[in-house]
Each structure stands twice: as structure tokens, then as C-alpha cells.
Amino acid sequence: MSEVNNVNQNPEDQGNGGTLALIAFISGVVGLVGGFIPGVQYVTGIAAIAAIVLGAMSRKTAPADKKWMATTGLVLGIVAVVITIAAVACVLCIGAALINSGELTIN
Predict the structure, then answer these.
(1) Where are the domains of the chain?
(2) Label partner for 59 (CA 20 to 30 A): which of 18, 33, 71, 107?
(3) What local confidence, expressed as pLDDT, does residue 4 receive?
(4) What span, in angstroms and rounded, lies between the C-alpha atoms of 99 and 64?
(5) Residue-wise DSSP of 38-80
(6) Do 51 and 76 contact (CB within 8 A), yes or no?
């Protein structure tokens, strides 16, 4: 039974910062790619915000060999938020232009 529970009990060796760095990196990539897809950008904006938060948190706790993932996740999250905001603004502007031109009517 003791062989099955072979988990390191030292909290310094568990690598929680490395896990957060990996999640920040993945969230940043998902947020960036999803920011270019109409309709999906509304959902992936949340992933981009998570990448910013987790990237900032994990930069403090990640081991030295995992800090690049935290930094990359942070940067990708910031870029993804900017792209998402710009894409949503474009959709709103196009919708307003269509309404003003009479091409689109709201009943």
C-alpha cells in the first residue's frame, strides 16, 4: 500500500509554479489563436485573462527552467486581450455601419 502512495511530501519539490506556468502558456496560446476566430473570441478572451493572471503568479514561484513558459503565457495573454478587444470593436463597428446604411434592420 505504501508503494502506491509514492508522492513527494516536500512542498518545495512539488513544482506548483511550473504547473501554473504551463497552464498560463497553454491559455495564452488558446487566447491568441481564438482571438482571430469570429464568435470564439468572446470565450477565448477569458482564457487570455487567465493567462495574464497565471503568468504573473507563476513568474514568482516557477523554477528557473519554467519561467520562460510563464513569461510567454503572460505576453501571449496581453496580446490576445488586445486582439480580442480590437476584434469585438470591429464587429460592433460593422454592425453599426450596416444598421446606419439600412442594410440591416432591427425589428
Answers:
(1) 16-101
(2) 33
(3) 52
(4) 53
(5) TTTHHHHHHHHHHHHHHHHHHHHHS-GGGHHHHHHHHHHHHHH
(6) yes
The amino acid at 83: I
Residue recorded with cell 506548483: 16
pTM, full prediction: 0.77
Q: Give the whole-angstrom CA distance, residue 36 versus residue 49.
A: 16
Task: Give the integer Cα–Cα distance in Å for 42 and 57.
Answer: 24
What's residue 79's pLDDT?
96
User: In terms of Cα–Cα distance, which of 93, 90, 72, 89 is closest to 30?
Assistant: 72
